């Protein structure tokens, strides 16, 4: 081997050693929808109450004890944010107001007139029954995915699912308890 070849070989080895990164361990995807411990989803939302109709974009991050739900109206107008901290405190922010409480559904009802069972929806948005009460589930006979969940006076209809890390998760759903209705079109999922 010539001196020139040895220099080229050494230089190439040094460059490739500098450019390679150590492989970081990655969290394996959950094995089932029930095993999801953290998730984030975003998309479009339509909310109808007996006196109002609101539409916009939403982003929802959910951890084992926390969540952050943001709804932003068209053109960035009318932002509403609902957060639960690790100590269970719930914070509702909208129209330059910040209100705290212990129950997200109660805050939404009292402050905005929105009836939205946040605790149950954290399950329904994944196509699961909330474990807090009895429910009736209608399943698609072809794929065994839920078509409808009836629980706590609410009806959840699923019209489309998508695959995320091998799991079937809702992409389009409606949560209703007349006169209240929430339509979700989920554009993006991230799960752990």
Please describe what this structure looks like.
The chain is of the alpha+beta class. The chain has a single domain (37-186), classed as Clam (outer membrane lipoprotein receptor (LolB), chain A). 17% of the residues lie in helices and 45% in strands. The protein contains 3 helices and 11 strands. It has helices spanning 3-19, 104-112, 118-124; strands at residues 39-48, 53-62, 67-72, 80-84, 90-94, 97-101, 135-139, 146-151, 154-164, 167-177, 180-191. Strands 6-5-4-3-2-1-11-10-9-8-7 form an 11-stranded antiparallel sheet, with helices on one face. A hairpin with a 2-residue loop joins strand 5 and strand 6 (97-101). The longest helix has 17 residues, at 3-19. It starts with a helix and ends with a strand. The model is unreliable at 5-20 (pLDDT under 50). It is found in: Cell outer membrane. Monomer. Belongs to the LolB family. It comes from Marinomonas rhizomae.
Task: Compose a concise summary of this entry.
The protein is of the alpha+beta class and 192 residues long. It has helices at residues 3-19, 104-112, 118-124, and strands at residues 39-48, 53-62, 67-72, 80-84, 90-94, 97-101, 135-139, 146-151, 154-164, 167-177, 180-191. It is a lipid-anchor.
């Amino acid at each position: 081997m010539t001196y020139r070849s040895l220099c080229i070989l050494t230089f190439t080895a040094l460059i490739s050693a500098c450019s390679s990164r150590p492989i970081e361990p990655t969290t394996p995807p959950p094995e089932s929808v029930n095993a999801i411990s953290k998730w984030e989803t975003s998309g479009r939302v339509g909310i109808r109450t007996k006196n109002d109709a609101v539409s916009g974009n939403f982003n929802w991050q959910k951890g084992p004890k926390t969540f952050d739900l943001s709804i932003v109206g068209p053109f960035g107008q009318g932002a509403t944010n609902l957060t639960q901290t690790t100590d269970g405190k719930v914070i509702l922010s909208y129209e330059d107001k910040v209100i705290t409480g212990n129950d997200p559904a109660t805050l939404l009802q009292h402050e905005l007139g929105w009836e939205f069972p946040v605790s149950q929806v954290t399950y329904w948005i994944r196509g699961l029954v909330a474990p807090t009460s009895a429910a009736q589930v209608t399943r698609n006979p072809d794929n065994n995915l839920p078509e409808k969940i009836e629980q706590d006076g609410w009806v959840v209809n699923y019209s489309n699912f998508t695959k995320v890390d091998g799991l079937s998760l809702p992409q389009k759903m409606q949560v209703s308890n007349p006169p209240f209705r929430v339509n979700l079109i989920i554009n993006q999922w991230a799960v752990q």
